[in-house]
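Record 1 of the preview.
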Amino acid sequence: MKVLSTVATLVALATIGNGQSLTRVTGFTSGPTNVGMYIYVPTNLKTPAPIVVAVHHCQGSATGYSTESGYMPLANSHGFILIYPNSKSGGGCFDVASDATLHHDGGGDSQTIVNMVKYAATNYGGDLNRTFVTGTSSGAMMTNVLVGAYPDVFKAGSVYSGVPDGCFYVAGSTATQDPPGWNNQCANGQSTKTAAQWGDMVRSYYPTYTGPRPRMQIWHGTADNTLRYPNYAETMKQWSNAMNLTTSKDTANTPQSGYTMTIYGEGTATTAQLVGYSAANVGHTVPIHQAQDLAFFGIA
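->
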């Protein structure tokens, strides 16, 4: 996958603003996979503190994405914890292809990331009632997987240039293979289902869950040649069905020129259950909109 440009992808620590650092958490050993846990805890932490999980792209890293994503200065301002998972694979992708990662408590990278959230709540004062996830490309796909398999953990997600939950499934793919499974049909935007079929996939990953679904914000560029643009419509179909939303409204040039915002159901850009942003002539990936993310999460 195309990577984001950064000048700090190889540093182990990234110092921001008030002297706090992105730190590798060596005490986290819960697994079940070997995804590394990096954390940023500002000095002015709220009590308890919201948790934002930010998941990097292929050929990326926790340290690199901590710089690219631009969330750490905002954590200083708003007192939230940041978790940056670090992929265990040689190519830096996360497993979104195996049965293990797709299913609730099935193992795989998704469960490892959820265990990081629990670790942060126990050891750093994180608030399990205000836990959110976002990611780019492979991290966007993992965001959809996490929200689908663990709706009891995450309250909302923001997806930058991903694919629907389960779209990347590869028969026989395992949670430990390197590199993780890759689904060309899905990546090329050729996996088309009805909204009900996509929604059924989400429900199948945690079949005993009956609670509310996390709110979702979806971003995709029309010129994406890596995870192609049809994945945007399929993702919106999936979450609208999972949330039982049947009406939508488009607004042009929002939040900026060339972007079309779609709100499903009631509410605004910051309060609706499902919000999509189609970015005209934008490739892979859509730039991160930190202000919109934090407003959608209810943090800022």
